[in-house]
Specification:
By secondary structure, this protein is of the alpha+beta class. It has a domain of 34 residues. Helix content is 25%, strand content 24%. The chain contains three helices and four strands; from the N terminus they run βαβααββ. The protein has a four-stranded antiparallel β-sheet, with helices on one face. The longest helix has 15 residues. The chain starts with a strand and ends with a strand. The mean pLDDT is 95.
C-alpha cells in the first residue's frame, strides 16, 4: 500500500452558526492550516480527529490501494482527493495525496 500525505488546506469557522446552534464545548478542533499527517497502510494518523477520519478514510483507502481518478477524474492530480470533514460549524478541507512507493 502507498503512504498517503494528508494536508489541511483550509479551516473554516462559522461563528454565527456556532452561536445559534452549538452547545458550548471545551475543545472542538486543533487542526490548523498547513498541518500535515501521514497515513501508513490506510491507518488513521496518530492525533488525527476520529470524526474527520471517518470522512477521509474511504478516499485514503482507495488512493493507498493504487486507485486513481476518483469521481471520474475531478482532481488535476489523479492520485489525490480534496475532502472536507463533516463538521458544519468548523469544516476543514484536506488534500489527500498518494505518494510514490520507494
Amino acid at each position: 500500500m502507498k503512504i498517503c500525505k494528508i494536508t489541511a488546506l483550509r479551516c473554516a469557522r462559522y461563528d454565527d452558526l456556532i452561536a445559534r446552534y452549538e452547545n458550548p464545548i471545551e475543545h472542538a478542533c486543533s487542526v490548523k492550516e498547513g498541518d500535515v499527517f501521514f497515513s501508513y497502510g490506510a491507518t488513521r494518523p496518530e492525533g488525527f480527529c476520529e470524526s474527520a477520519w471517518q470522512n477521509l478514510y474511504p478516499f485514503v483507502m482507495a488512493l493507498a490501494s493504487g486507485g486513481e481518478g476518483l469521481f471520474d477524474g475531478w482532481m488535476k492530480d489523479p492520485k489525490s482527493a480534496l475532502i472536507s470533514c463533516n463538521d458544519g460549524f468548523r469544516p476543514v478541507s484536506f488534500l489527500i495525496e498518494a505518494l510514490e512507493e520507494k
